[in-house]
Structures are given as structure tokens and as C-alpha cells.
Amino acid sequence: MKSENRKHILVYDGACDFCIFCINRWKHLTKDRIVYAPYQAVSHQFSDIPISDFQTSVQLILDDGRVYSGAEAIFRALDNRRLIWFYEKMPGFAKITEIVYRLVAENRSFFSSITRRFFRTHSN
Prior knowledge:
Blueprint: E1 8-12, H1 17-30, E2 34-38, H2 39-42, H3 51-56, E3 59-61, E4 67-69, H4 70-77, H5 81-89, H6 93-106, H7 108-119
Parallel strand pairs: 1-2
Antiparallel strand pairs: 1-3, 3-4
Helix pairs in contact: 1-7, 5-6
């Protein structure tokens, strides 16, 4: 693939209903700036990223090879400059958002059921 045609890719857990629900919502916000792919289909293309990283956090792989994970990956994928600024500059913000991300990631089934009730929809 030519470098000028490459896009950022957000890799997620394709076996996670909560993850799929979130990805489907984010697709509307990011339009065609981000390619979304389940790690089960693309992890072999990124052998420098441990499979355990894909299993525990979303991974944003930029077209220049930089990799972000967790909350920071989401902020950057959504191109939310305000949240990125807070993440980089506000003491404690990165740590708190990553703790919250980890809490949600470790309890995906619970948050999936809450999300479905709140939005009254299913990811499928």
C-alpha cells in the first residue's frame, strides 16, 4: 500500500459486543479518517504489538507507525483536540482517563448491558 493512501487504523476486540457498539458509534464521528478492524483479523500485520495489548485495549496505529492505546487512542481517533490537550497537559488527567478506561475494559459485559439499556439498542 502506498504511504499516501494509508490511513490510521483503530484495532479493537471483534468478539466484544461493547467494543463493537462503541466502534459503530465512532464511525459516524470519524467518517473515513479512520479504518476500523478487529484484532482477530489484523494482529498478524502488527507483530511488534503483543496480542495481549490488542486483547486489553484498543490500539490506534497511525499512518506513520506511531501507536496509541486505551483512552489516548480514543481521544486521538476521535480527533478531540480538547481532550488530547488535557491528556497531554493537565496533571492527572491521563492517569484518571486510563484508570476509567481500564475499569470499563475489565468490565465490558457489565458496561455493555448498561449501554444497551440506556440506548435501547443492540450492536448487531
